[in-house]
Amino acid sequence: AAASVAAAMEAEGPGERWAPVGAVSAAAAEEEEEEEEEEEEEEEAGESVRLLRAERRRLQAALLALGSHFAQVQFRLRQVARAAPGEQRRLLRELEEFAFRGCAGPAPSEREKQEQIEVRKEKQRELILQLKTQLDDLETFAYQEGSYDSLPQSVVMERQRMIINELINKLDMDLSEDVAMLSPEELRQRVDAAIAQIVNPARVKEQLVEQLKTQIRDLEMFISFIQDEVGGSGKAEDGHCERAGKKDVSGSYRPNSQPSGNRVSPEDTRKMRETGLQLMRRVLAVLQIFAVSQFGCAAGQVPRSLWQKDQASRDYTPLIRKLELAVERVRQLAVRHQWEEHAPGSPELQDVPSGGRDELTLAVRKELTIALRDLMAHGLCASSQGMSLVLAPIACLIPAFTSTPQAMHPWELFVKYYNAKNGQAFVESPAHKLSQSFALPVTGGAAVTPKQSLLTAIHTVLAEHNPFKRSADSELKALVCLALNEQRLVSWVNLICKSGALVQSHYQPWSYMANTGFEGALNLLSRLSNLKFHLPVDLAVRQLKNIKDAF
To answer: Which pLDDT score, from 0 to 100, does residue 200 have?
Structure first.
């Protein structure tokens, strides 16, 4: 075997021997490196050629501009030589200006212009970013040193951005488009639509729940009424059966022991009840038509014959005089306080002392409010609370509802207006809460209407006084003080006067409100519209709140 291998190697010859494996890989690597170097040299050569060609074009353009400039100089020199002596001075001056002006360079191409514009924009962006960074660093340094009170603008914008992102996520708003492309009106419409998607279903559910509660309450009253009627008839039949019994030896009656042949089955009793219900529904409908056509009364109205007939109580002249005196006294005290505050050399006076015992506050709470309360209470009456939809059609014919109407406090009239206008839903709406929390104008920049301000004021008074069980007088005094502070007393009272449903349901026909529309009183109250007040609103609950806070 060894001899055969040696013979084969001798047959191949010395020139046919293979190279080692490592030597082959090294040679291949060297060849690849040489190829890469050649490619790089070719690329560099191509780049050099391109640069040389561009430089050649620029030189050619410069040479052409220089030749043109030289030709124009020669032409102007020839003009100077051939001109008259008077024109030579002017032509020489023009030639001097032209010669020192220099050669006009070649016009840049569109691509070069665009590149120059992009370079200029990039430099401007870098400069703006650098200035913003320096400004943020300066504000942060000043805030840390204590010489700058508010937070740095970058921190404020970051927090605002976080709040806006949370609101967008909560309201499920679609802001896929660029916000900068939308107008303020379009943004406001999108926000209103997003809020309406949350508020409107809840409001509709509340109204539906209230309607269902009312219907269920009326149905319960009707069922109890029917049960009372059926129970009374059953008792009467039992008594009749007892009387029909036989008399024993002692003279007392005893029921008949023999079974009755005409006993009513439960099925017949159910049918009789259903028939009775149908008959009663028809009777109620007929009575309602009869009452409306003959007596002119319906649900929610008090018959005109039920009002008080005392002629002495109908005279409202003393009440008008009382209100006029109270308005005049409050006006004089307010003018005197303002004059003392703005008098030169006088010390600065506090508008309302902590105890609220100054003359102006006492005059408003104990004179003006009481006079306004008495005048608004003239002919004011509370409608029946026990009347439901079942008994409303025959309310004029039922003795229980024909008694003298009970008196009603004017503050309850404001509360009824608040409930009728869905004041709680308005105050607790997300838009209103956002407006109070972030001072954002949700009304499109328009002024707050008297209706909105009145609903907010009533809600404020109720929220502050109801937890402490304050009286209606205290709440009315707080509302009057708040109205004077906001200079809206006339507009708020006017809203109550213009509410037709409240006036027709709660005021007697001979009352001052029904006869005059409260015009004279509004004219008297308008004397206070131009005066500025700073009256305490929580005077009746301030001490109680302090006690609560202490514990």
So the answer is: 82
